[in-house]
Amino acid sequence: MKTIITTDKAPQPIGPYNQAVLNNGMLYTSGQIALDPKTGQLHLEDISSETKLVMENLKAVLEAAEMSFANVIKSTIFISDMDNFGKINDVYGSYFDDATAPARETVQVARLPKDVNVEISVIASL
To answer: What sections of the protein cross the membrane (predicted)?
Structure first.
């Protein structure tokens, strides 16, 4: 059975999608970008702070599903410039324990929504 997960602690969807869907113990999050959930403003000052806000938005969605980053089994990172990989990876990695970190792919793309530099989604399991 599909359950829609929503929280006001992460940005609200700007299209025909939800923040996350829980189905048979698996949580599928929509991609998060550096939108401040309180103001709706983008935060693109530097790639490290941008990535931190993305991860905090994901954390809020996970918490709304009564999960944490420990439940994440797979993540996908889209970046606009592979030269930012190291800084993104440093922030991203601070949210996981190396021994139990999820599977992941990182892909450079030509363009992301609202011209952000990074978008991340995760799949988690109860």
So the answer is: none
Considering only the C-alpha atoms of the chain, give the largest distance between any 2 of them, rounded to a whole number of Å: 41
**pLDDT the model gives residue 84:** 98
Lookup: tokens for 114: 């609202």
d(CA 71, CA 52): 19
- The enclosing domain of 21 has a CATH number of 3.30.1330.40
Domain count, the chain: 1
pTM: 0.96
Residue 33: how many other CB atoms lie within 10 Å: 24
* CB distance 54 to 118 below 8 Å: yes
